[in-house]
TrEMBL record:
Belongs to the aldo/keto reductase family. This is NADP-dependent oxidoreductase domain-containing protein. Keywords: NADP, Oxidoreductase. GO terms for molecular function: oxidoreductase activity, acting on the CH-OH group of donors, NAD or NADP as acceptor. It holds the Pfam family Aldo_ket_red. InterPro entries: AKR, Aldo/ket_reductase_CS, NAD(P)_OxRdtase_dom_sf, NADP_OxRdtase_dom. SUPFAM superfamilies: NAD(P)-linked oxidoreductase (SSF51430). It comes from the Bacteria. The record marks K76 as: Lowers pKa of active site Tyr. Residues 17-271 form the NADP-dependent oxidoreductase domain. It comes from Enterococcus casseliflavus EC20. The active site is at Y51 (proton donor). Substrate binds at H109. PROSITE patterns: ALDOKETO_REDUCTASE_1 (PS00798), ALDOKETO_REDUCTASE_2 (PS00062).
Length: 273
């Protein structure tokens, strides 16, 4: 069963192959979704300081009835925080809000503040700032506050900047990846450096639900479009983070113990969404 399978990070820590995403989930929805998911086999949940639902996720983990050490919890330092001390304070705040004793994985949410991630007319790279933030993550890792560290939305140049100045390499890079929006160069770069790729928005925030080509392939396997989309990432050794607050969909998103043929994978690779 896929929910019982894991990837292994470069520090030998295992991470469950599917995570529940909680982006844009209210605290109440995040609590209910997390608790339901864990009680129905999920062992991995992804949150962030910016989502403003860490307290709810932590409470759901504690209330789930499942031992803490069996659950993998990821959170993130906000993209706007770009000093060492801000990162230290953010990590400590997340530890307090989650109230789980430790964090399994913490990421830098983005290499630049969100307001210039898509439009950066002055071409600011924030390389020095990211090195400072990374030092805070390294210290949290070496102290045992967090079990693994990584980044999110980093491209090759952003990663190389960290490599050139780090003592501990990033173990994970989380970025948007789905049928119709792939990034083979970045995926290969991460694999070459033993960095696990996590793909958020595996269903393209719902846009793939209206894609007839994807629908045709999904129907051939007797599966839903979300199930095909999640399986597509898994077959590329990418960890998918499907988000839902509906119990039916949370359950269905984990029913991906099937194999997409090589021919159909090539068809999906070729699609533009």
């Amino acid at each position: 069963m896929i929910l019982q399978e894991t990837f292994t990070l470069q520090n030998k820590l295992t991470i469950p192959k599917i995570g529940l995403g909680t982006w844009q989930s209210s605290p109440e929805d995040a609590y209910n979704a997390t608790k339901f998911a864990i009680q129905n086999g999920y062992r991995h949940v992804d949150t962030a300081a910016a989502y403003k639902n860490e307290e709810a996720v932590g409470k759901a983990v504690r209330d789930s009835g499942v031992a803490r050490e069996e659950i993998f919890v990821t959170t993130k330092v906000p993209a706007e925080l770009k000093t060492y001390q801000e990162a230290v304070d953010s990590i400590d705040a997340s530890l307090k809000k989650l109230d789980l004793g430790y964090i399994d994985l913490i990421l830098i949410h983005a290499p630049r503040p969100w307001k210039i991630m898509g439009n950066n007319p002055e071409n600011k790279d924030f390389y020095l700032e990211n090195i400072d933030v990374w030092k805070a993550l390294e210290e949290a890792y070496l102290s045992g506050k967090v079990k693994s560290i990584g980044v999110s939305n980093f491209d090759q140049k952003d990663l190389q900047n960290i490599f050139d100045h780090c003592d501990v390499k990033p173990m994970v890079n989380q970025f948007v990846y789905h049928i119709g929006r792939t990034n083979e160069e970045l995926l290969a770069f991460c694999k070459d450096h033993d960095i696990l790729v996590e793909g958020y928005s595996p269903i393209a925030t719902g846009r793939l639900l209206d894609n007839d080509a994807v629908k045709t392939i999904a129907e051939a396997y007797g599966k839903s479009i979300p199930q095909l989309s999640i399986r597509y990432l898994l077959q590329k050794d990418i960890l998918p983070l499907p988000k839902s607050v509906h119990e039916e969909y949370i359950s269905d998103n984990a029913k991906v113990d099937f194999e997409i043929s090589e021919e159909d994978m090539k068809k999906l690779d070729a699609l533009q969404a």
